[in-house]
Amino acid sequence: MEKLVQKDLNIIQDWTKKWRKKLSIEKTEYCIFSRNGPIKKMNLQLEDYWKNLGNSKSRSTDQKNVGKHIIMEKLSHLPANSCIAFTDGSCLGSPGPVGAGAVIFPSNNQPQIEISKAVSKKGSILLGELIAIKLVVDHFLISENRQNTDSITLFSDSQTSIGILTLNWKSENYIKVIREIKKNMKILKMNGIPLNFEWTPGHADIQGNDIADSLAKKRS
């Protein structure tokens, strides 16, 4: 058993070293989410990072372990007063019934908050992902919900949603929802609460993502 565990640890360490060597996590995040806006040169590198961990349907066990390791590392380095949220959307068919789910871990060690919504009887997974993010943003628009919180770190497994909201990716659908999210993000920032996005691999045994996924599925 010890040999098997050590083998898995070696695989994770090897993947992590290669990934860090290729991109440098800290530099990529700073450039992409800097206050001066996205930097085009770094966008391609971020997409390479996403591709390195595959997708939920084709992700190998090794990629799954690496993804979980990376997210746990990111969580461990967040500031004490940073509120953490995981979001996910669900769609039964394309198009089909859509649900959205989110779980929030407050910065003041209060119990986790679970939010979910039945979004539409006929929509797409992107709509579910965007509404899930909106649930979190709208939650923090209420002043009492952001007490003792200096920032919000939101983990989404939707690369498209993050691209649309932070990297100026274009979308021909759900324009109203996208505009509302961006507007409310600005309101939070004006109130001293920046919202930082992180991509998390889905279906990789990451607790927050699994909870959000379950909530979304129940409402779709």
From TrEMBL:
Presence of the UniProt keyword Cell inner membrane in the record: no
User: Taking every annotated instance into account, which residue ranges of this chain make up the domain RNase H type-1?
Assistant: 79-220
- What keywords does the record list, in alphabetical order? Endonuclease, Hydrolase, Metal-binding, Nuclease
Q: Organism's domain of life?
A: Eukaryota
The record's listing under Gene3D superfamilies reads:
Ribonuclease H-like superfamily/Ribonuclease H
Single Gene Ontology BP term?
DNA replication, removal of RNA primer
Q: Which GO terms describe its molecular function?
A: metal ion binding; nucleic acid binding; RNA-DNA hybrid ribonuclease activity
CDD domains membership = Rnase_HI_RT_non_LTR
Q: Name one Pfam family in it.
A: RNase_H
Q: Which reaction does it catalyse?
A: Endonucleolytic cleavage to 5'-phosphomonoester
According to its UniProt record, the EC number is: 3.1.26.4
Which family is this sequence assigned to? Answer: Belongs to the RNase H family.
Q: What's this protein's name?
A: ribonuclease H
Q: Which organism is it from?
A: Mytilus galloprovincialis (Mediterranean mussel)
Q: What is the lineage of its organism?
A: Eukaryota, Metazoa, Spiralia, Lophotrochozoa, Mollusca
